[in-house]
Amino acid sequence: MSSAPSRSSQDAVGNSLAIAVDHVIEAIAAVAASNPVVLIDGRSGAGKSSLARSLVSRWPLRGRVQLVALDSLYPGWDGLDQGVALAKELILTPHARGMIGVWQRWDWTVGEPAEAHAVDPSLPLIVEGAGLLTPATARLGDVRVWLESPAVSRKQRALARDGDTYRPHWDRWARQEQRHVARDDPMSLATLVFPVP
Asked: Considering the entire predicted model, what is its pTM?
């Protein structure tokens, strides 16, 4: 029997994310701001990146939207909390204060910071990544999303996406996500919660 996801399970995930996009777009419009901030959290493989990319392609406001994935900030496989702290300090807080934020991409190959990127406070912003919704970051997001998905499905999708690069680190990363869920209760901080099969 194949371990690859079935077409029907892929369709179910796609349908769930399409519904989520529709609801998030409605929430963005309801904010009635030119530069809203959308925060997307969920455990690895839940569909955060797919949701964020769909939102960018269907962004409901005029002009462009900025997207930052925390995968570009986590400083290595033990860096979930530090990546979120960097996002708060270098991206979310400056954006909220009307200041340009500057962050450095983490180069996973060499294990050190790489080039710098700027975030324009006048433009809307989507930030997505595991661990993102905390009491400290939630107040900086206008629309806050939590994606809830079963562990077996998430693991299958994440390893299909990242393969042998991620496989040896799955349990290590999952423990950090579990600490975040237990400590921060991100589902309670979300303005929108979506199940993903």
From this structure: 0.93
